[in-house]
Recover the amino acids of this structure.
């Protein structure tokens, strides 16, 4: 995605050269539309318009001459925030603003608008914090403006080239607004990078591509990057990753990116499943389900993309990202049902279904990461099971954990980011479903409780370390329709992880 220039100015209104001026409008409990007093004449003129009542994401385009004489722009867009008063929560307001930003982006796509001005002069109920207004509006706007057209070769002369410049018209503490807007822009840009990775076809995004991108990003942003190849994994005994890659001509990679602010800080370990294509292996998937399996690396994409924001914002916590990457093919040497593998650390696993491969990758990566980095906690992100989609649909990511505190932190971060999570249980009754007659465990626990038994498989590698598993199989693509979430990959997880790291406590983490 092309970079959009975002600037914050102290102007009261547009200077005249912008293609579009955007004004935020809310709806009172009495049904009347509300905006900043500066736009009172304008609202009076449109008060009787039946097609606009200030509802969420509702848009009304106007053209000159405008009732407010000081307005100078080629066209005007009123964008509804819905009913708002002083009682609105921060989470709800943030989501309303993201949705409004997405609605603005959608209008710009339809009208091929490349430059716009967005007034932060807003309804009285939310006018106190222009920094937050700017942050979440820009986040939603840039997320909604996302396009992926890399492989389109027939260029229509009227094809929309995307947004190029956004000017925020603010007042008051402009420095604080600029810092907040930069946070929103950084986060949105990284989400779009994760979407780009997922949109790449399997032949253009392999484990090698993961490794090359990670090295380039780490070098640019001052992080350390290490990539373990097949020979190194063989020496280390990473039988899970090696087993998944047996049927493929693509060699596996274990990608490690390390943001380290120095000694004396907690370490957070992020592990993302990087399966660049999943055929199911010998336990072959149905043909109609296979097209989407290039998205099976969305966990790895989210973790890697989040590291870019972390490197820029420089929090006082060490963050290590590990992406075990392979694809799962049915070549002549492929893993077979009934095979027994040995994971990093020695645990053995009987393979019941080769399509339950993600846990094999993650098990090795988690065990290695905990042993090497001694983290305060571990969070893994993976498109792991179809079962979580049956349980939660495409509206919540599944969350399973051995730490109540880590659960609270993740659920709070997800709520503030508009990426909701729902906790599912763990327990010995689920562990028993993984019992094997010939090995320490087997890699599936049967049809029932599949998302939970998959998490319990990973639980074997955690020990006493506080750990959370986030199953994004239902939300990494086909996520709940929103103005700022496109069809296809959503980039889920990036903003939740960044929000969690931003709020990391200064005192040592305790599970």
């Amino acid at each position: 995605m092309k970079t959009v220039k975002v600037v914050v100015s102290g102007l009261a209104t547009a200077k005249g050269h912008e293609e579009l001026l955007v004004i935020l409008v809310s709806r009172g409990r009495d049904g009347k539309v509300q905006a900043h007093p500066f736009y009172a004449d304008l609202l009076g003129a449109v008060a009787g318009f039946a097609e606009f009542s200030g509802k969420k994401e509702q848009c009304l385009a106007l053209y000159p001459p405008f009732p407010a004489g000081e307005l100078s722009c080629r066209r005007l867009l009123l964008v509804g925030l819905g009913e708002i008063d002083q009682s609105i929560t921060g989470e709800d307001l943030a989501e309303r603003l993201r949705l409004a930003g997405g609605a603005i982006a959608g209008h710009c796509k339809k009208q091929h608008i490349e430059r716009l001005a967005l007034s932060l002069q807003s309804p009285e109920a939310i006018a106190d914090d222009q920094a937050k207004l700017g942050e979440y509006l820009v986040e939603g706007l840039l997320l909604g403006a996302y396009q992926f057209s890399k492989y389109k070769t027939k260029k229509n002369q009227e094809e929309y080239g995307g947004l190029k410049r956004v000017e925020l018209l603010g007042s008051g503490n402009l420095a604080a607004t600029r810092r907040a807007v930069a946070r929103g822009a950084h986060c949105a840009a990284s989400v779009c990078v994760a979407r780009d990775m997922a949109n790449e076809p399997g032949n253009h995004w392999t484990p090698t591509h993961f490794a090359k991108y990670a090295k380039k990003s780490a070098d640019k942003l001052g992080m350390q990057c290490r990539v373990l190849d097949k020979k190194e994994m063989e020496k280390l005994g990473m039988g899970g990753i090696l087993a998944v890659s047996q049927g493929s001509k693509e060699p596996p990679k274990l990608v490690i990116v390390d943001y380290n602010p120095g000694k004396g800080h907690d370490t957070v370990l992020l592990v993302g499943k990087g399966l660049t294509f999943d055929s199911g292996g010998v336990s072959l998937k149905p043909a109609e389900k296979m097209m989407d399996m290039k998205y099976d690396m969305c966990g790895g994409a989210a973790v890697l993309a989040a590291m870019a924001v972390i490197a820029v914002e420089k929090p006082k916590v060490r963050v290590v990202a590990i992406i075990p990457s392979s694809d799962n093919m049915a070549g002549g040497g492929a893993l077979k049902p009934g095979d027994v593998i040995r994971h990093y650390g020695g645990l053995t696993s009987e393979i019941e279904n080769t399509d339950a491969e993600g846990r094999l990758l993650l098990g090795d990566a988690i065990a290695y990461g905990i042993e090497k980095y001694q983290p305060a906690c571990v969070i893994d992100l993976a498109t792991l099971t179809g079962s979580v989609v049956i349980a939660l649909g495409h509206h919540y990511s599944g969350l399973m954990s051995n730490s109540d505190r880590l659960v609270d932190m993740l659920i709070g971060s997800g709520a503030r980011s508009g990426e909701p999570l729902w906790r599912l249980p763990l327990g010995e009754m689920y562990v028993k479903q993984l019992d094997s007659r010939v090995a320490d465990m087997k890699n599936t626990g049967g049809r029932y409780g599949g998302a939970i038994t998959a998490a319990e498989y990973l639980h074997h590698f955690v020990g006493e370390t506080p750990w959370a598993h986030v199953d994004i199989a239902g939300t990494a693509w086909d996520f709940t329709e929103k103005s700022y979430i496109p069809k296809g990959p959503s980039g889920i997880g990036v903003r939740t992880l960044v929000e969690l790291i931003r709020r990391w406590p200064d005192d040592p983490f305790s599970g």
User: Anything to note?
Assistant: Residues 105 and 132 are 19 Å apart (CA to CA).
